[in-house]
Amino acid sequence: MSRSVLVTGGNRGIGLAIARELAAAGDAVAVTYRSGEPPEGLFGVKCDVTSWEDVDAAFGKIEAEQGPVEVVVANAGVTKDTLLALMSEDSFSSVVDTNLTGAFRVSKRAVKGMMRMRRGRIVLISSVVGLLGSAGQTNYAASKAGLVGLARSMARELGSRNITANVVAPGFVETDMTAVLDEQRQAAITSMIPLGRMAAPEEIAKVVRFLAGDDAAYITGAVIPVDGGLGMGH
């Protein structure tokens, strides 16, 4: 049966690849986006995950369109990179508010329906940076590391209701964000990756599809790295 799925930040990059992958699996997929246009073939809802009112309203629209959300993928995220000594408090708090607290808001709203249905899948999109750390990204790394504690706490709270919560931690992925890096920087990055290349967004999406599916029914509280070996051991 087709499930109602929500992917936040699903209008480009990794989020869009995840949304397309889940739609190809037969799910009814809605995506949230902050700007631009919704992707063709998917139900798009404008939503800023830093606003509880926006999140609640988005869920209302999605539930009316395709039913209670059974799978939520918290992917929406931002970066504001700079060295710690130069980082403003706003640059730190705004990144945490979007990446970590935004995932909390979306998960909190989703579990109400999931608990009634006594089933659900929550997948949080973290980053290898949240496990390894990264100079110039204390805000981003802290927000992505926080997703691990969030997911594992939800796994313990919600497991008795047949709701799983897991984390996918991508490494460097070929997206608009990495495309702006010059060739020297890209070469430096790939030299650190045992597999010697960046990931395609679809490679992240397939892992999310697995975690959202029946074959992963006994996996919860897990952190799945999809990083070419960059963060192994963390």
TrEMBL record:
Q: Give the Gene3D superfamilies listed for this entry.
A: NAD(P)-binding Rossmann-like Domain
Write down the InterPro entries for this protein, in alphabetical order: KR_dom, NAD(P)-bd_dom_sf, Sc_DH/Rdtase_CS, SDR_fam
Keyword set, alphabetical order:
Oxidoreductase
The Gene Ontology biological process terms listed for this entry are: fatty acid elongation
Ketoreductase domain residues: 3-176
Asked whether the UniProt record includes Translocase among its keywords, one would answer no
**Coiled-coil boundaries:** none
Lineage, top-rank taxon, reads: Bacteria
One Pfam family from the record: adh_short_C2
Please list the GO terms describing molecular function. Answer: oxidoreductase activity, acting on the CH-OH group of donors, NAD or NADP as acceptor
Which family does the record claim for this protein? Belongs to the short-chain dehydrogenases/reductases (SDR) family.
In Swiss-Prot or TrEMBL terms, this protein is called Beta-ketoacyl-ACP reductase
Source species of the chain: Actinomadura craniellae
